[in-house]
Amino acid sequence: MRAYADLLRSDFEGYIADIQEYFRCLDAERARAFQEAREVSEDYGRLVELLD
Predict the structure, then answer these.
(1) How far is Cα 18 from Cα 20, in angstroms, rounded to an integer?
(2) Mean pLDDT of all residues in 3-14
(3) Percentage of the residues of the chain whose pLDDT score is greater than 70
(4) What kind and span of H or E run contains 41?
(5) What is the DSSP code (8-state) at residue 52?
(6) What is the pLDDT of residue 1?
(7) What is the rounded average pLDDT for all residues in the chain?
(8) What is the pTM of this model?
(9) What is the mean pLDDT of residues 14-37?
(10) Spatial distance between the Cα atoms of 22 and 33, rounded to a whole number of angstroms
(11) DSSP SS3 for 3
(12) Cα 9 from Cα 40, distance rounded (Å)
């Protein structure tokens, strides 16, 4: 195992970096989707006010 320690360490560090990037991407998309939902809700609220 010692012969492959550097390779294992490198693979693990690459995996951790990739998963962190993936989670940041998910967080950004979640924030974008919430903002979009908020804007759509506000638009709908204005429409309902116009119809009343």
Answers:
(1) 5
(2) 95
(3) 100
(4) helix 5-51
(5) -
(6) 78
(7) 96
(8) 0.72
(9) 98
(10) 16
(11) helix
(12) 46
pLDDT at 3 over 90: no
The tokens for 37 are 């939902």
Placement of tokens 């693990």 in the chain: 12
Q: Identify each DSSP E strand in 1-52 by its residue range.
A: none
Alpha carbon distance 32, 50 (integer Å):
27
Report the distance separating Cα 24 and Cα 18, nearest Å.
10
Residue 4: DSSP 8-state = G
Structure tokens at 21: 């990037």
Residue 4's Cα: distance from chain center in Å? Answer: 34
Q: What pLDDT score does 2 carry?
A: 84
Query: What is the C-alpha to C-alpha distance for residues 12 and 5, in angstroms, rounded to an integer?
Result: 10
Which amino acid would we find at residue 3? Answer: A
